[in-house]
Automatic annotation (TrEMBL):
Protein name according to UniProt: Putative toxin-antitoxin system toxin component, PIN family
Membrane-spanning ranges: none
InterPro entries with a match to the protein in the record: PIN-like_dom_sf, PIN_dom, PIN_toxin-like
Classification via PANTHER family: SSL7007 PROTEIN
CDD domains with a match to the protein in the record: PIN_VapC-like (cd09854)
Domain PIN, residue spans: 19-123
NCBIfam families linked to this entry: putative toxin-antitoxin system toxin component, PIN family
Signal peptide: none
Organism: Candidatus Kuenenbacteria bacterium CG_4_9_14_3_um_filter_39_14
Any single Pfam family the record assigns to this protein: PIN_3
SUPFAM superfamilies: PIN domain-like
Domain of life: Bacteria
């Protein structure tokens, strides 16, 4: 079993876009280095996006990664991701997801962490769409919206991402 420490220092909080990442996004990111999910994870790791997770979400992350991480490259990527994610303590339980009630934990964390988005490939979450200003987005929809907010052409960000992928 892999155990991840949750480093968090309130002095390091920046005012930036905050998201909650569903476990299925992490699975996609580790399976495809060029996916939108991977781009989002890379933005979290580099500190451009703030990601938050509750203890329940952390436990789910750990269960999945215990099964998925099978080499040192993936282990290092997971460690960088876990180091970047901030743990939040939900004070209330939200009940908006009807068909898979365990998915309510993502809304609990989003409210506690004041997140603007939940990134997921789960249709039960998509059905909600928006709750108290928190938008549920597919990775590709989130990525396009995120990049278009700060770059009219998108070319500068695309080039920077490609350089990062190519290791230059």
């Amino acid at each position: 079993m892999i155990i991840f420490n949750l480093p968090f220092n309130i002095n390091n909080i920046k005012l930036m876009l905050t998201i909650v990442i569903d476990t299925n996004i992490l699975i996609d990111a580790w399976q495809d280095d060029f996916s939108y999910a991977r781009r989002i994870i890379d933005e979290v790791v580099t500190g451009n996006i703030r990601a938050v997770a509750s203890h329940k979400i952390w436990r789910e992350y750990q269960l999945i990664f215990d099964k998925l991480i099978n080499n040192s490259r993936h282990y290092e990527m997971a460690q960088r991701f876990f180091y970047a994610v901030e743990e939040v303590q939900p004070q209330t339980r939200i009940r908006v997801v009807k068909y898979d009630q365990q998915d309510n934990k993502f809304f609990d964390a989003a409210v506690a962490g004041q997140a603007e988005y939940i990134i997921s490939n789960d249709c039960h979450l998509w059905e909600i769409g928006e709750y108290q200003g928190i938008q549920v987005k597919k990775p590709e929809d989130f990525w396009i919206e995120y990049k278009n907010k700060n770059d009219d052409t998108g070319s500068e960000n695309w080039q920077a991402w490609m350089k990062n992928v190519m290791g230059r």
